[in-house]
Design brief:
Chain A has about 170 residues and is an alpha+beta fold. Chain A is about 45% helix and about 10% strand. Chain B contains 18 helices and 8 strands. In chain B, helix 5 (about 105-110) crosses helix 6 and helix 14 runs antiparallel to helix 15 (about 360-380). The chains are: A alpha+beta (about 170), B alpha/beta (about 450).
């Protein structure tokens, strides 16, 4: 416990004023402030690429809720990243329809091309590769979400050119 | 971008209430076009002609069954929602957390016609005397989020949302709430917890959300497609809605049906409720690459596998329910004859194991165990008793053993795959009993 507190205290984090304002704006959509905690984490993540440990107490203080409640959601949701990720996060759908339309070949091609395993980030900090459940584009499997862009169907042959577009 | 595969020339307001306005190029139907083509007329009609009770009765009479997959009557759900004069006003929540494997219908409705959803939510809010609506949208649907936000602004600017909706004296607004991953958020009570900014664990029922939901207030949770059906019902009446499906089904209305997997033309079609699997399969052009149909899921990863012989059944809740499977979302996933059922079942159970929220023991511990057994069978290193153990686990994951339907959903493809394709599982058994599974499951392997 002491160690954790020390870690948070040493992790100098200042909530950007614009992010603070955005969090308070989200807070206004709900009867209770805790409801804005997930959106607050996403606001911080949008700026930093991930949610640094120091952001947790900063968000809690901004919303006037407990640190543990923010930490609780920050460790539950799969799209809240608690360590740095690449500039572009590749979410590859591994659900059944993509599985049936050769997801495994696409996954293996990505792993080969990027030289990383699932869950890892390239050494140049460009890409992070993560699995995601059904992207809701099953008529176009296999699918990828790169940043906010949905792609599909993606063939292993088309991958290099597709990834070139993400500097 | 996903498209409706029926051209606009074949879609009409009377027969395709969900999709008749959609453009062939998949561009969104914006506010002016929506309003100029009769949009929001149902809200005007409801405010002028309906009480909240008569509106609920109308929807109940239409037999609009929940399009999120459970098939519960929306009007029944509304009629069970607390909304008397002595009850505080609550919430209408749209479940737009579409993550069911094989399901891609709500995304299309939200990206291309957000106003139909908003109109449906206003009507649901009116019928349930809600003070506020929330659209709970999964975080990965960026285009849908942009489309909805613009539509909410446009509707608000024209007086359809906000204080004193169109001079009715009723205050109602809608906010967009976006998620941050996790399939379990689509479960009704987990969704409410997530909306409140908590971990998405399910809640015990009762109390049902209609009595005590978001922040302890009466809350109605309806799926996107369900809500999109409401304007048509209000405009044309419950009898018209029932007649859309005619003799095909006792379930009213049309359905966004779809097909994915190795079919020639994967996609979406708006068809009468009760359309058969074969009609849908043929619209999708049958199998591609000279493949043959081996099996299919009627409506998502949490429904049970069926066989080619089931294709002539009507795709409605009761008919598919009688096979032991479920209609689910009504978007079929097609499995070709060259596909190992053991591998596919392993893929599905990996999904359910990863997406378990960990709240209930059978789900949290049973699903990774099933994955371990399935991986062994897939690798040809299973041992005698594995299949019986999987069958026992499917029973232990069944209804009533856990807080929510995640585990029963996971059990459906597992038990049905073994039921119909037991020989494939048996081929994975090669080692003597007691040898195969000594190793623990590696941490983080799911």
């Amino acid at each position: 416990m002491t160690q954790n507190t020390a870690t948070i205290a040493s992790d100098a984090f200042v909530l950007d004023p614009a992010d603070r304002a955005a969090i308070l704006e989200e807070r206004a959509h709900y009867p209770y402030p805790q409801a804005a905690s997930i959106e607050a984490l996403k606001i911080v993540q949008k700026r930093h690429g991930y949610v640094p440990d120091g952001a947790i107490p900063a968000i809690a203080a901004t919303l006037g809720i407990r640190v543990a409640d923010v930490e609780g959601v920050a460790t539950f949701y799969s799209l809240i990243f608690r360590q740095p990720v690449g500039r572009h996060v590749i979410l590859i759908c591994d659900s059944s329809s993509c599985f049936l339309t050769d997801y495994e070949q696409l996954r293996d091609a990505l792993i080969d091309h990027l030289g990383i395993q699932m869950g890892q980030t390239t050494a140049d900090g460009r890409f992070t590769l993560l699995p995601v459940c059904c992207l809701g584009a099953c008529d176009r499997g296999p699918t990828l979400l790169i940043g906010e862009d949905l792609h599909g169907p993606v063939t292993p042959e088309a991958l290099p050119a597709l990834l070139e577009a993400y500097a | 971008m996903s498209r409706i595969l029926q051209p606009a020339s074949e879609r009409r307001a009377e027969t395709h209430p969900l999709t008749w306005r959609l453009h062939d190029d998949a561009s969104p139907v914006l506010f002016a076009e929506y309003r100029d083509t009769g949009g929001y007329a149902a809200v005007t009609k409801a405010l002028e002609q309906h009480t909240y009770e008569s509106l609920t009765t109308e929807v109940k009479g239409a037999n609009l069954r929940g399009r999120g997959g459970a098939g519960f009557s929306a009007g029944m759900k509304w009629s069970l929602t607390a909304k008397g004069d002595d009850v505080p006003r609550g919430y209408i929540v749209c479940n737009a957390d579409e993550m069911e494997p094989g399901t891609f219908k709500d995304r299309l409705l939200m990206e291309q016609q957000p106003h139909l959803l908003i109109e449906g939510m206003i009507l649901a809010g009116y019928a349930n005397r809600s003070k506020q609506g929330y659209i709970f949208l999964r975080g990965e649907y960026h285009r849908a989020a942009a489309s909805i936000l613009r539509a909410l602004d446009d509707a608000r600017a024209d007086g359809w949302l906000g204080s004193d909706v169109r001079g009715s004296g009723w205050d109602f607004d809608i906010a967009l709430h976006t998620g941050a991953g996790r399939y379990i958020c689509g479960e009704e009570t987990a969704l409410i917890n997530s909306l409140e900014g908590k971990r998405a664990n399910p809640r015990a029922k009762p109390p049902f959300p209609g009595q005590s939901g978001a922040w302890g207030l009466p809350t109605v949770v309806n799926n996107v497609e369900t809500l999109c059906n409401v304007p048509g019902i209000v405009n044309h009446g419950a009898d018209w809605f029932q007649a859309l499906s005619g003799e095909r089904s006792s379930d009213g209305g049309t359905k966004l049906y779809g097909a994915s997997g190795k079919v020639l033309r994967p996609g979406l079609w708006e068809l009468p409720m009760g359309t058969t699997g074969r009609e849908l399969f043929e619209l999708a052009g049958g199998m591609r690459d000279g493949l043959t149909l081996k099996s299919w899921l009627p409506g998502g990863g949490s429904t049970g596998f069926l066989l080619p012989e089931h294709l002539d059944l009507a795709l409605d809740f009761d008919t598919i329910g009688k096979t032991g499977s479920r209609l689910g979302t009504g978007l079929i996933t097609v499995v070709a004859d060259d596909q190992s059922m053991v591998s596919l079942t392993r893929n599905l159970e990996e999904f359910f194991a990863r997406e378990s929220c960990g709240w209930c023991t059978p789900c949290r511990d049973g699903l990774p165990w099933s994955v371990k057994l399935l991986r062994a069978l897939e690798a040809g290193t299973g041992e005698p008793g594995d299949i019986e153990l999987l069958e026992q686990m499917a029973r232990d994951l069944g209804p009533g053993k856990t807080f929510c339907a995640h585990a029963p959903g996971a059990a459906m493809p597992l038990s049905s795959a073994i039921h119909y394709f037991r020989d494939e599982f048996e081929r994975g058994i090669t080692r003597p009993r007691g040898e195969a599974h000594a190793d623990p499951i590696p941490v983080g392997s799911i």
